């Protein structure tokens, strides 16, 4: 199939790492444990598959929505870069810029959405289309979905083994990676946007 001609291990790894940092499922382990205590056993399979499906659907439908409202991918990618930048600052500084409402259900809401496939993740997924091929983004999403499933299955065990200090360090490390990614995403797409206007 023609879509597999664009298959790239490097792109898959990059997409996986970007989405992994944005989803931050490791950093969300304390939240998952808290939801388990509040609502009972979380259905890891249902939550992860739903989150993966939301991301893949938005990858394709999101672009059509953009065309409908007359926004190009580069402009959306720059907007996405700002969102990723804010998420990174939250992770590094330990502050809460985006206020979230209290959860009233488990598994699908709020685990699949918005904890895993939230606004930041969906924005990032679509922003990746400005630089990477669809097949590699989809495989990056699938790998993250598998990882999310494994973490949800063993959330309590992970919290006991890693502890709050380790989780906090991991969150800050991925925050710095995410900050660098947001800057790269902004500069690359801003340059392309300028070129498009010059050529126009």
């Amino acid at each position: 199939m023609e879509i597999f001609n664009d298959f790239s291990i490097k792109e898959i790894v990059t997409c996986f790492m970007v989405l992994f940092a944005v989803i931050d499922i490791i950093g969300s382990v304390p939240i998952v444990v808290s939801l388990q205590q509040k609502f009972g056993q979380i259905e890891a399979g249902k939550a992860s598959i739903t989150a993966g499906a939301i991301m893949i659907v938005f990858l394709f439908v999101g672009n059509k929505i953009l065309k409908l409202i007359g926004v190009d991918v580069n402009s959306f990618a720059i907007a996405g870069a700002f969102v990723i930048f804010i998420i990174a600052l939250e992770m590094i500084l330990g502050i809460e810029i985006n206020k979230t409402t209290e959860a009233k259900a488990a598994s699908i809401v709020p685990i699949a959405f918005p904890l895993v496939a939230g606004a930041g993740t969906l924005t990032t997924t679509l922003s990746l289309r400005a630089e990477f091929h669809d097949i590699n983004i989809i495989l990056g999403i699938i790998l993250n979905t598998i990882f999310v499933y494994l973490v949800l299955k063993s959330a309590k065990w992970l919290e006991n083994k890693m502890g709050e200090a380790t989780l906090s360090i991991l969150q800050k490390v991925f925050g710095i990676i995410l900050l660098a990614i947001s800057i790269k995403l902004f500069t690359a797409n801003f340059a392309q946007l300028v070129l498009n206007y010059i050529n126009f």
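The chain has one domain: 9-97+105-199. Residues 155-199 form the longest helix (45 residues).
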